[in-house]
Design a protein that fits this description.
Layout: E1 6-10, H1 15-26, E2 30-37, H2 44-56, E3 60-65, H3 102-117, E4 121-123, H4 128-131, H5 139-151, H6 154-161, E5 168-170, H7 178-187, H8 212-223
Parallel strand pairs: 1-2, 1-4, 2-3, 4-5
């Protein structure tokens, strides 16, 4: 869309981030997708992210390379087994698939990209199912990062001097269930069959079917009919 306001959208290749990209595009934004090659075991998601960016119609797509395997401490970035067969509907605590500070790091990169593009909006696919277990998916974290973004950037400071808020972290899925995300994705025409949510897929991208992400995704599709 000519003259559309730019937005930066974090795009992992999974269902949630793909739906956020399509949602913000439908809202009239020129969406610039940002993915990360961070040493994750499920690298097939990067191929899917590129495919989804094209299919949904992102204005651009970039992949930033950072090495979170240098810190490890997660089943996604270290030689730690991905939990399988857990009762995800009743699971408590922060799972071993949590990557230390990942969303903080990702949002910091998105913030730099947004400022360079003159974008006021950053989209991220955090949602109600995730924030019960992941601290960097919770509403308090999103609000705190948005406050930081408006304090720690030139554009934010200049906007503040005018009595304005510069950056907005858009979380359209925050209070949705997985079933609601599936329905929203279908309504927006997202190719959900090309998204990959599995934490431990095969090299070809076939899901394991038993990790937390696979179970939650399957539950969402069942509940959505």
């Amino acid at each position: 869309m000519t003259g559309a306001a730019p937005a930066v959208v974090l795009l992992s290749g999974g269902m949630d981030s793909a739906v956020v990209l399509a949602h913000l595009k439908a809202e009239g934004f020129a969406c610039h997708a940002l993915s990360f090659d961070y040493g994750q075991r499920h690298r097939v998601e990067l191929e899917r992210a590129a495919e989804l960016a094209r299919a949904i119609g992102a204005a651009s797509h970039r992949t930033a390379r950072i090495d979170l395997r240098a810190f490890g401490a997660s089943a996604l970035t270290a030689d730690i087994e991905v939990p399988k067969g857990r009762d995800v509907e009743h699971a408590k605590g922060i799972p071993v698939t949590y990557v230390p500070a990942r969303n903080t790091i990702f949002l910091a990169h998105a913030l730099a990209m947004a400022e360079s593009l003159g974008a006021r909006d950053i989209g991220i696919g955090v949602n109600a199912i995730d924030y019960s277990g992941y601290p960097d998916c919770r509403p308090a974290f999103v609000a705190a990062f948005e406050k930081l973004a408006n304090l720690a950037t030139r554009a934010g400071v200049e906007a503040g001097e005018r009595g304005e808020r510069w950056i907005r972290v858009q979380t359209p899925l925050l209070h949705m269930s997985k079933a609601e995300i599936v329905r929203r994705g279908r309504a927006l025409g997202v190719p959900l069959d090309r998204t990959v949510s599995c934490y431990d897929p095969s090299p070809a991208g076939d899901p394991c079917g038993n990790c937390d992400a696979c179970q939650l995704r399957a539950l969402g599709f069942r509940e959505a009919g």
